[in-house]
Amino acid sequence: MKPLSRRQMAWRAAQDLENGAYVNLGIGLPTLCADFIPEGREIVFHSENGILGMGPAPKPGEEDKDLINAGKQLVTLLRGGAYFHHNDAFLMIRGGHLDVALLGAFEVSEAGDLANWTTEDPNFPPGVGGAMDLAVGAKEVRVLVEHTTKDGKPRIRKHCAYPLTAPHCVKRIYTNLAVLDITRDGVVVREMVEGLDLAGLQAVTEAKLTLANDWRRIGAPAV
Amino acid sequence: MIDKRVRSLAEAVSGVRNGATVLCSGFGSVGEPVELLNALRETGVKDLVCVANNAGTGDEGLAGLIREGRVRKIICSFPRTTDPHCFEAAYKAGRIELEIVPQGTLSERMRAGAAGIGGFFVKTAAGTRLGERKETREIDGELYVLEQPIKGDVALCRADRADRWGNLTYRKSARNFNPVMAMAAGFTAVQVREIVELGALDPETVVTPGIFVDRLVVV
Predict the structure, then answer these.
(1) Nearest chain B alpha carbon to A165
(2) CB–CB of A137 and B104 under 8 A?
(3) Per-residue model confidence as pLDDT tens digits over B46-79
(4) Which of A79, A112, B98, B182 is the most buried (most CB within 10 A)?
(5) Is residue B106 situated within a structural domain?
(6) B1 min Cα distance to partner chain A (Å)
(7) A68 to chain B nearest CA, in Å?
(8) Which residue in chain B has the smallest CA separation from A160?
(9) What's the domain count of chain A?
């Protein structure tokens, strides 16, 4: 069994972004998805600090310190892009105008609860940023996350132990092992990596899993 | 004749009282009125309640106010941004109170303050720790929490170009919180790159109309 690399996870999530979609990519792993948009599709990336049509990092010599993404990294604007102020940026998020928010997570519950804003580490002050707005506002919330923690604990759980970002918001989860959907009937496995079976996946997942009838292998290229 | 230009940063921030609520614009340091915030620090004012997205970057601007112990409380969405050492030191020492507000709620609370709206219901934070102890209401089958408006005594902003009436244009993602903060305070001081002749700004491109601006200074 060979888990997906982080870039392969981003590749897999990017395959599901449809032509014409307005998408917000969360900080960290989801940001990588922008590198893997399938040929021929136009996706409009939204940034919470007032950008639609956000492009990749600038080439050397083309940096502009007034043009950053939510993670405060330098970015560019694509042709057709636009700037706007914070109220409009969050009106787009909270008013259901974004098609997809692709977010990172600490934990997701079998009911689709998302925990991604604080681990309650007493050494660090908490910070929420736009996480709660994205979780309740986008038409569809998808999560991109390693299947387990570094020490092997499941991240897909019956209930989240960390404080919630929003209840009942996650629709689909992409991990380094599988693609899973949160449905009314629980967590359904749509895809698994080569060499893994349901029992093997269940062993690293706290939530109860069901295998979809039409499940398949993830065919991620080396990226 | 209307002329909102002032001669110095000190003049731009004069009159801010101890205990004032100060809306500090910027997203990280982009769009942050660093020089105005430095000038505010130099006035010696203290016990401030600062409203900002983050809690200061590096040592200048908002970070400097926090380092010097002038900020009693910060209301922000994400205190830990690039190089937040001034805030972290104050927080660990228990010298600053922190109120975490979801980013969209933060900007909407200021918009409500600016628009004379006495509060609003929003789904963000419903069913979470940040929604606890807030009035809730079910609307169309979904849970909403009541959020209160924020008004500043003063807003410190940064724009690209202005005219003497206070009309403002911005540059790229440096716009961020500036328009809403400029609208939501008793008086608004703005540092700009350039002040142009009245009539030189294309009215179609003005983002903040001069009615929201009181003092202008070129930095």
Answers:
(1) B128
(2) yes
(3) 999 999 999 999 999 999 999 999 999 999 999 9
(4) B182
(5) yes
(6) 30
(7) 7
(8) B128
(9) 1
Q: pLDDT tens for residues A161-203?
A: 999 999 999 999 999 999 999 999 999 999 999 999 999 999 9
Number of domains in chain B: 1
Question: Is residue B86 included in any domain, yes or no?
Answer: yes
Is A30 within the bounds of a domain? yes
Out of A47, A94, A125, name the one closest to residue B104 (CB).
A94
* Structure-token match 């010097």, residue found: B68
Task: Quote the CA–CA distance of B28 and B23 in Å, as a whole number.
Answer: 14
A125 chain-B contacts, CB cut-off 8 A: 79-80, 87-88, 91, 98
Residue B124 within a domain: no
Cα B108–Cα A45–Cα A60 angle in degrees, nearest 5: 115
Q: Does B192 touch chain A (CB under 8 A)?
A: no
Contact between chains at B179 and A85 (C-beta distance less than 8 A): yes
Q: Do B145 and B126 touch, CB atoms closer than 8 A? A: yes
Domain ranges, residue A81: 6-217
Q: What is the mean pLDDT of residues A117-141?
A: 94
A16 neighbors A36 (Cβ within 8 angstroms): no
- Residue A1 in domain: no
Average of per-residue pLDDT across A58-81:
96
Tell me whether residue B18 is in a domain: yes
For residue A55, the one-letter residue type is G
CATH number for the domain that contains residue A197: 3.40.1080.10
A191 in catalytic set: no
Contacts of B39 (CB under 8 A, 6+ apart): B8, B9, B10, B12, B13
Q: Tell me, what CATH number does B167's domain have?
A: 3.40.1080.10
Structure confidence by residue, pLDDT tens digits, B98-135: 999 999 999 999 999 999 999 999 999 999 999 999 99
* B 36-75 residues inside an 8 A Cβ radius of A: none
Q: In terms of pLDDT, which residue wins out, A192 or A119?
A: A192
* Cβ–Cβ gap A130/B126 under 8 Å: no
Alpha-carbon span B68 to B42, nearest angstrom: 10
A146 located within any domain: yes
